[in-house]
Amino acid sequence: MNEFELIHHIKEKHGLSRVGDDCAVLPKDDKLDLVVTADMLVEEIDFRLEWTTAEHLGHKALAVSLSDIAAMGATPKWAMLSIAIPQDLWKKGFLDAFYDGWHKLAAQYNVELVGGDISRSPDKFVIDSIVAGEVPNGEAVLRSTAQPGDAIFITGTLGGAAGGLSALRAGTRQPSANPHEEKLLLRQLRPSPRVHAGESARTLGASAMIDISDGLSSDLAHICSASRVGAIIDSELLPIDPGIASVDIPADRAVDFALHGGEDFELLITVPPKKISGFTERAFTRIGDITPNADVIELRAAGKSLPLIPKGYRHF
Amino acid sequence: MNEFELIHHIKEKHGLSRVGDDCAVLPKDDKLDLVVTADMLVEEIDFRLEWTTAEHLGHKALAVSLSDIAAMGATPKWAMLSIAIPQDLWKKGFLDAFYDGWHKLAAQYNVELVGGDISRSPDKFVIDSIVAGEVPNGEAVLRSTAQPGDAIFITGTLGGAAGGLSALRAGTRQPSANPHEEKLLLRQLRPSPRVHAGESARTLGASAMIDISDGLSSDLAHICSASRVGAIIDSELLPIDPGIASVDIPADRAVDFALHGGEDFELLITVPPKKISGFTERAFTRIGDITPNADVIELRAAGKSLPLIPKGYRHF
Questions:
Q1: Topology classification of domain A151-307
Q2: B13-24 confidence digits (pLDDT tens)
Q3: Which residue in the set B44, B118, B124 is minimally distant from A7, CB to CB?
Q4: What sign results for the dihedral spanned by CA atoms B197, B199, B205, B208?
Q5: pLDDT tens sequence across A210-251
Q6: Which end of chain A is more exposed for a tag (fewer CB within 10 A), N or C?
Q7: DSSP structure class, residue B230
Q8: Choices 3.30.1330.10, 3.40.50.2300, 3.40.50.1950, 3.60.15.10: CATH for A3-136
Q9: From A23, which residue of chain B is nearest by alpha-carbon distance?
Q10: Chain A residues with CB inside 8 Å of B37's CB?
């Protein structure tokens, strides 16, 4: 049993896939549902201290969970933050900067820190980020409700976070003198969750939504699997991050980053035909369509259509 | 700045002490408040794998958070569980047993697992346990509302978890042929949260409540500090775990375990004079009284009254 099979087994057997979405949806009152998410970030698995700063890390810990809230079309409300801290980071300066990074992003969305835990760690820094949001009853946008004939839209641009990771791996560190490269590094180290775009997508009539954390091909596969549909993506419509060229990445690898690079934290949205105009009028980019061919994902490029195999980048 | 001062600084500066109780209390609807808690358990800091089993660990991860819910007088409803797992525990058997331990306890209280995260860890096992409960609007029992003249009650017996820890440190492992010793080991490794007792204490009119996780002296100090009161405890009234004698602990050390031993997960409850009879009629033990002497805690023993200095046991 490999890593993915074991996680799948645990999720299936022990109820973690009951909701099977970016967030669990729970009844709150007669107007609102509560959506909740938890994300564990582990040193050397999900981040490297020599690549980032305490403040970026605090920001990112919250951003990844806000992105899950956004993918439900919900509005974030409150959060908890649990940390296990090793001896060498057990310093006022590091912890203040970490919480400052968290709080600055939280302030943008009026998210209140209501609790959490602080523990020692024998060696590695571990963060668990918990965020709760609200959405009108029954209106949380799930993964499982895309329909054949729906259009596929995304927010923003793709591949930037993978470009930033590639630069970090090659030894580049912040701040970079090249402003394009600096932007790529920040896409990896200090991602921006698309909270307002997620709320707009819900009110504009999105049929399904997910955030692009594993990579477009993997996250689109999650939507297709949950909705029992297929998809076709047009390679030429992909809004590739223009900064990727600045780090000497050839054009074909840039497409690879856009298709499979994780951690862009953009939103992937499916839209019924009658609702498409609302999205094209705003800052969403149409990249393809949902098809009836369950679990078949195709990529159209240069007039040809080929199967698109999901291969999300492992983060490190 | 030592460890406690640093944690205090972080909590004060970064908003973690906003609520300053076992759980944060959030409005849910026009009948109920939501209470939420998070507890981080870290290998080698909070538990040792050579002392416990995967199933006990899953049980304990949930139990510590249920105990926080109980201390608010709330009813637990749903939970999330995030884990970071090292390579050598990344096995079906270990993870199944861990989740089974969690689910068996959850089933006792109809707690539903709604989410969480599973990550790799470079070496240590880290668990973040999140539990949410419900309590009628405005009825959560806080730490800050004890009054001079209130009686102090506790549930169950004290010192057993410290007795179990002492046996583990001395090399004893489960199962022990001595049934008293086995019980002590289980008090440390597989604690029982006092969920129903916490709900009863609320409906019977408790004025303040906390769970005994750091030790009676420390947790009583938390109540006194939050309520700006003092307390006097009668040493002869302490219900010391009868099993402690079975592990060759002398009587004076047994009192020490009862006063300062952590992780008993009993409830410490303050009760206004008019409500006392409701508690004495049930399985609560009166151990002392709240006094007007802010932050002065006294221990009465053999006719003398001495200051009781809080000294909660570090868990390891």
A1: Phosphoribosyl-aminoimidazole Synthetase; Chain A, domain 2 (3.90.650)
A2: 776 655 567 899
A3: B118
A4: positive
A5: 999 999 999 999 999 999 999 999 999 999 999 998 888 888
A6: N
A7: E
A8: 3.30.1330.10
A9: B115
A10: 115
